[in-house]
Amino acid sequence: INFILQLLKDPLTALSDFISEHGTVTYGLLFLIIFVETGLIVMPLLPGDSLLFAVGVLAAATGKIEITFVIPLLIGAALLGDNVNYFIGKYFSDFVKSKDKILFLKREHITQTEAFYAKHGGQTVIMARFVPIVRTVAPFVAGVGKMNYKTFVSYNVIGGAVWVLGLTLA
Fold first, then answer.
1. What gap in Å lies between CA 64 and CA 109, rounded to an integer?
2. DSSP collapsed to 3 states, 13-69
3. pLDDT tens digit sequence for 31-51
């Protein structure tokens, strides 16, 4: 818990310290954080954006992170996480739609989001990637709304790749 709090407060220092203590295990931690943030609807507060910036800074400044390895790894984590989240939403779709409110999701918000996806679907998947919390909720709602999976995946690949590349190489 202490590490997560430090990661939220100062991701660059937290990540640098973790690398010093744990070496290559860091890659597993990075994968896990990006996967959990994007893949589990209940974990939207993990610091994905700032973590990606920190990864890029540490790779460029210290060489302790191998950028040619970490970028595909984190793109994979983001894509896998979004797919898990999509299927969780799809699996629980009927249950979620039968309730007036679940957690922070209201039925009217789901209905509005479904209409938005119908009109702007693929673009929404890409743009949501760059908005914290929305990044976690969007694939879940796409699943709840039963967005066409092929459409979701194609735009998810674009969004995930642009997000990781854009923030680590910024």
1. 44
2. HHHHHHHHHHCCHHHHHHHHHHHHHHHCCCCCCCCHHHHHHHHHHHHHHCCCCCHHH
3. 999 999 999 887 877 888 899
